[in-house]
Amino acid sequence: VMLRDGSFLVSSWAASAIYHGKPGSGAPFEAVIKDVPSPADIGYDLGRNRVLVPLFQKNVLEIHTLAL
Protein backbone atom coordinates (compact mmCIF):
# COMPACT_ATOMS: atom_id res chain seq x y z
CA VAL A 1 0.00 0.00 0.00
CA MET A 2 1.43 3.42 -0.94
CA LEU A 3 1.04 6.18 1.66
CA ARG A 4 0.71 9.93 1.07
CA ASP A 5 4.43 10.57 1.58
CA GLY A 6 5.42 8.02 -1.06
CA SER A 7 6.41 5.35 1.45
CA PHE A 8 4.94 1.86 1.38
CA LEU A 9 3.44 -0.72 3.72
CA VAL A 10 4.22 -4.26 2.56
CA SER A 11 3.02 -7.56 4.00
CA SER A 12 5.29 -10.60 4.31
CA TRP A 13 3.96 -14.09 4.81
CA ALA A 14 7.46 -15.45 5.37
CA ALA A 15 8.21 -12.97 8.18
CA SER A 16 4.63 -12.77 9.55
CA ALA A 17 4.97 -9.00 9.54
CA ILE A 18 4.04 -5.69 7.91
CA TYR A 19 6.98 -3.55 6.81
CA HIS A 20 7.21 0.21 6.23
CA GLY A 21 9.77 1.96 4.08
CA LYS A 22 10.45 4.29 1.20
CA PRO A 23 12.17 3.01 -1.94
CA GLY A 24 15.24 4.98 -2.90
CA SER A 25 15.71 6.43 0.57
CA GLY A 26 18.70 4.24 1.34
CA ALA A 27 17.05 3.08 4.57
CA PRO A 28 15.88 -0.54 4.96
CA PHE A 29 12.20 -1.37 5.31
CA GLU A 30 11.36 -1.90 9.00
CA ALA A 31 8.78 -4.22 10.57
CA VAL A 32 6.04 -2.01 12.07
CA ILE A 33 3.57 -4.82 12.86
CA LYS A 34 4.90 -8.22 13.96
CA ASP A 35 3.43 -11.63 14.72
CA VAL A 36 0.66 -11.52 12.11
CA PRO A 37 0.44 -15.04 10.70
CA SER A 38 -0.42 -15.28 6.98
CA PRO A 39 -1.09 -11.56 6.28
CA ALA A 40 -2.99 -11.25 3.01
CA ASP A 41 -3.60 -8.15 0.86
CA ILE A 42 -3.48 -5.29 3.35
CA GLY A 43 -5.46 -2.07 3.22
CA TYR A 44 -4.91 1.34 4.79
CA ASP A 45 -7.47 3.75 6.27
CA LEU A 46 -5.90 7.18 5.61
CA GLY A 47 -8.39 9.03 7.81
CA ARG A 48 -7.65 6.97 10.91
CA ASN A 49 -4.06 5.80 10.20
CA ARG A 50 -5.11 2.19 10.50
CA VAL A 51 -3.78 -0.86 8.68
CA LEU A 52 -6.32 -3.53 7.82
CA VAL A 53 -4.67 -6.95 7.83
CA PRO A 54 -6.65 -9.99 6.68
CA LEU A 55 -5.18 -13.18 8.15
CA PHE A 56 -5.66 -15.62 5.30
CA GLN A 57 -5.40 -18.88 7.22
CA LYS A 58 -7.49 -17.71 10.19
CA ASN A 59 -10.32 -16.01 8.24
CA VAL A 60 -9.95 -12.94 10.49
CA LEU A 61 -9.37 -9.22 9.91
CA GLU A 62 -7.02 -7.40 12.31
CA ILE A 63 -6.95 -3.60 12.57
CA HIS A 64 -3.75 -1.89 13.74
CA THR A 65 -3.31 1.84 14.38
CA LEU A 66 0.02 3.24 13.21
CA ALA A 67 1.84 6.40 14.21
CA LEU A 68 4.16 6.94 11.26
Verbal overview:
There is one protein chain. The chain is globular and about 35 Å long. A hairpin with an 8-residue loop joins β2 (17-21) and β3. The chain is built from no helices and six strands. The strands form two sheets. A three-stranded antiparallel sheet has the order 1-2-3, with no helix packed on it. The two termini are 14 Å apart. The mean pLDDT is 93. With 68 residues, it is mainly β. It has strands at residues 8-12, 17-21, 30-34, 43-45, 50-55, 60-65.
In summary, what is this structure?
The protein is built from no helices and six strands.
Q: Give the distance, in angstroms, between the N- and C-terminal Cα atoms.
A: 14 Å
The portion of residues forming beta strands comes to 35-45%
Strand order of the largest sheet: 1-2-3
**Backbone CA Rg:** 12 Å
Mean pLDDT score, rounded? Answer: 93
**Strand pairing plus helix content: what structural class?**
mainly beta
Quaternary state of the chains: single chain
Extract low-pLDDT stretches. Answer: none
Write the layout of secondary structure elements.
Layout: E1 8-12, E2 17-21, E3 30-34, E4 43-45, E5 50-55, E6 60-65
Antiparallel strand pairs: 1-2, 2-3, 4-5, 5-6
Based on the model shown, name its key terms:
3-stranded antiparallel beta sheet; 44% strand; 0% helix; globular; mainly beta; 68 residues
